[in-house]
Amino acid sequence: MKWSLLRNRNFVLFLVRESFSLSGTIFLNISLALYSLALTGSATLFASILSLGIIPHLVLGPLAGVVVDRMNKRTLILLLESGKGICLFSFFLFSQMAPVESGWIYFCVLFFATCDVFASPAYVTILPTIVNADELSDANALDTTVVETVRVLAPFLGTVVYSYYGLSTVFLVHAVLCTVSALVTSRMAIAIPPKTGVSSTILQDMKMGFQFFTKDRRILSLVANGVLTHLFLFPFVLLGFPFLIKQVFNGSDLDFGMVESLQTAGSLCSIAGVVFLQKRYRLSINIGIGIIGMLVFVFPLLLLADSGFSSFLMQHPTLMVLYFGTVSFLLFFAFGTYGVFFRTFYQQTIGVAMLGRFVSVMGMLFAMGRFAGFHLYGRIFDASPLLHAILLLGMGMILKLLMHIPFLVDEKKRRQCDKAENSRSL
């Protein structure tokens, strides 16, 4: 890992901005999840609230990429962070006068999801403009280290603030963090990619965002793999874990917060896996290793299908937290390793000028996967044995592994062609 990247002022500001913004987002997300679950008590209804946050990605996804590629990234992020800060401070003031009802939650989820539709591709496109192409793996690894450190601390701190001071205080804390994030962003110098010299309409630009998926089979395989992650793994964790801990095993808010922290500790420790693998194997192989790891670490969840084991966990809350925390740690250790190589590949493959469009379309496809996954798992957790949900997750991980095969095959063909061209040139 190139620690010398920390001498890059823009990269350091990039990490600081993201840390403040992410901390506030985690505080709010975990608080809204606990508040919504307390309001509904149903996995299906909880899934419906989570699904609201996906609608902006489905409706605005392709357009967001065009906006990101056409706008100054710093200006866009400043507008988004400032807007979120103003909205959050307004929520705080209103919540002092009246209880936070379900309508507020719906609006909050939709508003922040809309901001995220534009912020996510803007964030991804900034990194290749502030570090060199050969530094992207190390920059992503350092970025992940900082991000996951925040993720380890923020869930537990967020549940403490929510449990002791309520949702209105969470609004105020997030508003302050958004303000600090905006101030840090204003200090960044972000290079503007050169224009292609070819004028195009917004519809043409949106169409170009989809063309990457037909031009390069590796990209198609990679994105399809990501869709499966958002269809099977993320809904199980985002919906299933809070539902199981709170509703099935009668855990507390702090129990859930500790599990969330252990989950992100796994992602943080995955940096060691990245450092170990990146010097030994090709990028395509390393992505596959991460997928295999996720598949292997799903198996401990099968223990929940045994009624004796579940009863044991109910009687021992500390062991219940340790069990869910350990499984979360292992799953996200594998996912974190996979994610760094996943991002590095498309950042190296897609040109900076087109990266926003690609990322927004990819985000829209991922959102479609999460939307289907939330509703699927919501019904299964409410009406079917737990084993069904676990088997579905295992099947999804196997499909991810199979979906990586076309990527490996195409990558091998490209290497052979490159080797043959090099031989002819000699």
UniProtKB/TrEMBL annotation:
Keyword entries, A-Z: Cell membrane, Membrane, Transmembrane, Transmembrane helix, Transport
GO cellular component annotations of the record: plasma membrane
GO molecular function: transmembrane transporter activity
Membrane-topology annotation of the record: Multi-pass membrane protein
Localization of this protein: Cell membrane
Primary localization: membrane
Sequence intervals crossing the membrane: 20-39, 45-68, 104-124, 171-190, 219-245, 257-277, 284-305, 320-342, 354-374, 386-409
Methyltransferase keyword on record: no
Keyword hit for Plastid: no
PANTHER family on file: MACROLIDE-EFFLUX PROTEIN, MAJOR FACILITATOR SUPERFAMILY (MFS) PROFILE DOMAIN-CONTAINING PROTEIN
Protein name, as recorded: MFS transporter
